[in-house]
């Protein structure tokens, strides 16, 4: 099998560069900023859907139900992002303590 790869030029495995502490901290920081921005966006979306629900709860129930479904989806995404942020903070603390 390796002979065929040599003849036909199969994919070569690239060596992964090990990141030093500074690069890891930079990567954690950029990821944390991205997640915080996404969290803020989801908060705004949840508030917007709540306003739609309150405005249409008596007038147009189907619109209110659809907004409620979207709100629940946003809340689920928000809880996932909170979990990611918590994990990221724990990993960051582990790196700093090592």
Topology of this protein?
Blueprint lengths: L1 H7 L12 H36 L4 H37 L1
Helix pairs in contact: 2-3
Alpha plus pi helix count: 3
The biggest beta sheet reads:
none
Give the SSE order as H and E letters: HHH
Mean pLDDT: 87
Which blocks of ≥5 consecutive residues have pLDDT under 50? Answer: none
Rounded radius of gyration (Å)? 23 Å
- Apparent shape: elongated
- Report the β-strand fraction as a percent range: under 5%
Helix content: over 70%
User: How many angstroms does the end-to-end distance come to?
Assistant: 43 Å
How many beta strands in the DSSP annotation? 0
Structural class: mainly alpha
Give a structural overview.
The chain is mostly helical. Helices cover about 80% and strands about 0% of the residues. The protein is built from 3 helices and no strands. The chain has helices spanning about 1-10, 20-55, 60-95. Helix 2 (about 20-55) runs antiparallel to helix 3 (about 60-95). It starts with a helix and ends with a helix. The mean pLDDT is about 85.
